[in-house]
Write a structure and sequence with these properties.
Blueprint: E1 6-11, H1 17-23, E2 27-32, H2 37-47, E3 68-71, H3 96-106, E4 110-116, H4 126-137, E5 141-148, E6 156-157, E7 159-166, H5 186-189, H6 202-211, E8 222-225, E9 231-234, E10 237-238, E11 249-251, H7 259-265, H8 278-287, H9 291-328, H10 331-338
Parallel strand pairs: 1-2, 1-3, 3-4, 6-10
Antiparallel strand pairs: 4-7, 5-7, 8-9, 8-11
Length: about 350
């Protein structure tokens, strides 16, 4: 297998953040699926293809063969958990079931799934245990870890659970954090000239500054309002959220981030095209992933797969050598030597 040129499928594709991460290490996408039409519009503008629609209506046979399954699947409550329908029915009615059935039918060498950190705590941890158990029941060796986008070069605190699986017993390690000197800061991603439409009304600005925890916090900063109404400044963005209020995060308590800044906060390239209104970009970036973090995971996966193949090749070579030695070593020589 040539892991410098592999095929992947992009499920629950959104605007293609996971795709960008795996393209960066040599992958090429052979199939994509996304339900939201506005996200599909952005995806098509940037990748030249309109993703297939609802994955629940797509059979595994309709999907081309591939090497890695990718999916940032929505976390629905596992409604059947706790009832006695049996282990095989535990994921029915959830979108994870569609990942499970595709893995079962296609048997790719590897997969990577991404979800919110809270998946590990949902239903006292039972949801995550069932997901892992079902993946392992398919024969996959799984690894999981909560990673923070802040550790991989973007100015955003965004914790996500990453689940990686391999059909073979591949030894995998999650990527180490990027050196702090190589991480982008807010100053690196903020635009110099910003249209006045992004600035909040004066009363909102005053209200935010009055509630700001640290009045002397150095600029630039991004603040967000918590449930209690406190305004907390940070030298990075809190996690972008699809359904957040208009003023969820503000730069210097003066303005909302621009469309380009939202994409930069998630580590999207400057060449990424914006073809939908502000409200849609805000939703789409909130639903997406930190691209550099996914790229780091992708690199470790490909390195691990290459190492496994190389080890197997050497092992098979040794076995062939031993086998050849046994067939040419005449037993009479042994008996003549050891039993005179």
């Amino acid at each position: 297998m040539n892991w410098d040129n592999f095929r992947f499928i992009d499920l629950f594709a959104g605007i293609g953040g996971i795709r960008l991460g795996f393209e960066s290490v040599g992958g090429h996408c052979v199939f994509s699926s996304e339900f939201d039409e506005a996200a599909c519009k952005t995806y098509k503008a940037n990748f030249g293809e309109h993703p297939s629609g609802d994955i629940t209506k797509i059979t595994a046979n309709a999907i081309p063969d591939f090497d890695i399954l990718l999916g940032g699947f929505p976390c629905q409550a596992f409604s059947i958990i706790g009832k006695k329908e049996g282990f095989s029915n535990e994921t029915c009615g959830t979108l994870f079931f569609d990942i499970e059935r595709i893995l079962k039918a296609k048997r790719p060498p590897a997969f990577m799934l991404e979800n919110v950190r809270n998946l590990t705590a949902h239903d006292n941890g039972n949801t995550f245990k069932i997901i892992t158990a079902h993946l392992e029941a398919l024969g996959y060796h799984t690894y999981s870890k909560v990673l923070n986008a802040l550790d991989y070069g973007v100015p955003q605190k965004r914790e996500r659970i990453i689940i990686v699986g391999f059909l073979n017993n591949v030894k995998f390690k999650f990527p180490l954090p990027v050196d702090k000197t190589k991480r982008k800061t807010l100053a690196d991603i903020l635009e110099k000239k910003v249209d006045k439409k992004y600035y909040v009304r004066e009363e909102i600005r005053k209200s935010r500054l009055e509630r700001l925890k640290d009045k002397d916090y150095p600029k630039p900063y991004i603040s967000h309002e918590n449930i209690a109404g406190s305004i907390t400044p940070h030298p990075y963005s809190s996690a972008l959220r699809a359904g957040a209020s208009a003023n969820y995060i503000l730069i210097n308590d003066e303005r909302r981030p621009t469309e380009r800044e939202l994409l930069r906060i998630q580590g999207f390239p400057e060449s990424f095209k914006i073809v939908v209104p502000y409200g849609q970009i805000k939703k789409q970036t909130g639903n997406s992933v930190a691209v550099p973090m996914i790229s780091a995971v992708a690199q470790e996966m490909i390195t691990a797969l290459k190492n496994f193949d190389e080890t197997e090749k050497k092992q098979n070579g040794k076995e062939a050598e031993i086998k050849g030695f046994k067939t040419t070593y005449h037993p009479d020589i042994i008996s003549a030597k050891h039993f005179p």
